[in-house]
Amino acid sequence: MTALPPPAPRKLGLVIDLDTCVGCHACAVACKEWNEGGQFGPLPDADASGREPHGVWFNRVHSYAVERSAERQPGAAASTCAEGAPALGVHFPRSCLHCETPDCVTVCPTGASYKRAEDGIVLVDEDKCIGCQLCAWACPYGAREFSVDKGTMQKCTLCVDRIYNERLEEADRQPACVMACPTRARHFGDLGDADSAVSKLVAERAGYALLPEFGYQPVNRYLPPRPRRDGTNASAVPAPEPAEPLVHEALPPLLRWLDRALSR
Question: Which domains are delineated in the chain?
Fold first, then answer.
């Protein structure tokens, strides 16, 4: 089995803002494009345009339709969705969380899955991987990908071959998913440094770890949706007020004419 290195002060990871993620999948596509041609590619697809597409994706984005509650008091259970209230779209990006104590590493029988001591990034050495998939069974986040073509496991690398590439401009030494995000919902940095920009963002927005009860201490953080301007939040959005009926005779002459024209 593979041993974990001592905890390091430097913890590179991602901070994902669930308030601004629009589910466009730009992060997933950019990740695949970069890693397909890098030292960790290729990332194969099978039947990509068919009825049962599958393949290797380091980033995946899950979209959900969540019923809006008409009213909910803090701490109370979610109420029944108000009749006619539209569902709320929630987009949840998922990739490796580069945990502090990942079981995906400790169960590996060959040492192929390992955690870097210098920055905490979890990687897979494909030359040592035998494709037993024990790491996939051990990961509660579903972040491990099995390449049928290679017979080995693959996963998010935080674009380690990019973030340390001195041939790139300093501003470009970011994971491909972060660079591609059109709404700036993804942030990258040292979460072991309390004074880093990402750590300050987590503190300001009450960022949280995913499923901390498992005890794996994931490094990545998620930022919850911000309160709406009317004081509500994403889980307690009031039902919209019914629109008042349009009284044609009460409209100004120009609007009456426009209403007649559009009603034909």
Answer: 12-59+95-226 (3.30.70.20)
